[in-house]
Amino acid sequence: MNHQLYDFGMIGLGVMGRNFLLNVADDGFAALGTDINEDSVKALNEEGEGMNVKGVHTQKEFVELLSKPRKIMLLVPAGKIVDKVIEGLLPLLDDDDIIIDGGNSHYDDTNRRYEYLKTKNIRFLGTGVSGGAEGARRGPSIMPGGDKSAWEDVKSVLETVAAKVNGEPCVTYIGESSSGHYVKMVHNGIEYGLMQLIAEAYDILKRVGGMGNDEMSALFDQWNKGRLNSFLMEISADILKQRDEKMDTHLLDLILDKAKQKGTGKWTSQTAMDLGVPVPTIDSAVTMRGISAFREYRQDVSKMFEHVHTPEETLTGEALAESVEKALYSAFIITYAQGMHLLAEASEELNYNLDLEGIARIWRGGCIIRATLLEKIRKAYSKRDGLKNMMATSEFRDELFDCRDCTVDVLTAAMKAGVPTLCLSSAFNYYESFRSARLPLNMVQAQRDYFGSHTYERIDQTGIFHTDWGK
Questions:
Q1: Residues acting as catalytic residues
Q2: What pTM, to 2 d.p., does this model score?
Q3: Domains of the chain: which residue ranges?
Q4: N or C: at which end does the chain have fewer Cβ atoms within 10 angstroms?
């Protein structure tokens, strides 16, 4: 009979859960897993052969084999399944055991579970995990929020399995309640924006510049060696050169232009609107995925309009490539700025007390939005307490202004050629709006007062005013 007790448990042995647990075992911890799918349990035992890892078939055996306080991570689909797994565990657990939800749960659900499990004397961590299946195996970025004493008990495991940058683990305690899942949600919102920006840069280079996939792959690879260095640039360069095994063509050209989404980008937009924080590049990325879903309608509409020909006097060749690099870099900065600004405002509104420097630090490695740029972002927040929007800091102000004219040139060329750039243009106009000392919202306030008596304020007097317009 096996009397060994295991240090860390995982419920949910899909590829992500298995890889995370094998990572735990790699680093010297005894790891235990279970899943309702027998094939997943079998896969863990086969992949973990020779390692201190074991898969079992029942939750009862699973709980009995864990050392106390039990440290149990869930990597199951977000939603009702998480609640079902928790309810199944509760009769088997003891006071002060720890449940870690490592899925992409909505932060409202995490708040509810956090408060509920307090009444059961179970410590709970809502934990964002980013890096995909490969990151889970080799080192993800981990964002735990919730019971701080639980964090102290699982800290040694999570710091060991997390990605490392300059020897520093890409994990830190985020804060109370649902803060970990909130930060992961905003991470995913930034991810939506960056992905769409790269897609628009690819579209401009292809349709305005006439570049082929291999040429763009080499260009992206070159950019990835410079200030645009990031995981998403790296994989985009690989994607562009991938050939299809059956057809004598690039695989990318055979993929349907109809993107799906799991909801975290939409959640970021929704919470930003609730808090009154502008994140237009993230909003635009969500919108473009929505537009892409109406592919059949787009096909029909495109036939109703004349084809737009790229004008001869447009940017081409090296000049286009240089300008697109600058436009993309500035849009990357602005997208991160929007996400960090949202976190700063949410920290106050939701009482998270977030360490923005720490968040930028753990995003430097392991996660999908990891980039060289995050070290500069980390430094900007480390120097300034209370910083909300990083755009005007010395680290970024001059770079953004230096990229401005090239961004205008790229957007002009794209518009003339009929190439949609919703994300790139929204990032540019976000920057232009904050650069403007005065916006035309005086007209909006006058309109609101005209039709709804909503009142307005004046620049020459203090107080609240209303006018009987047109009289």
A1: 184, 191
A2: 0.95
A3: 8-177, 184-435, 447-471
A4: N
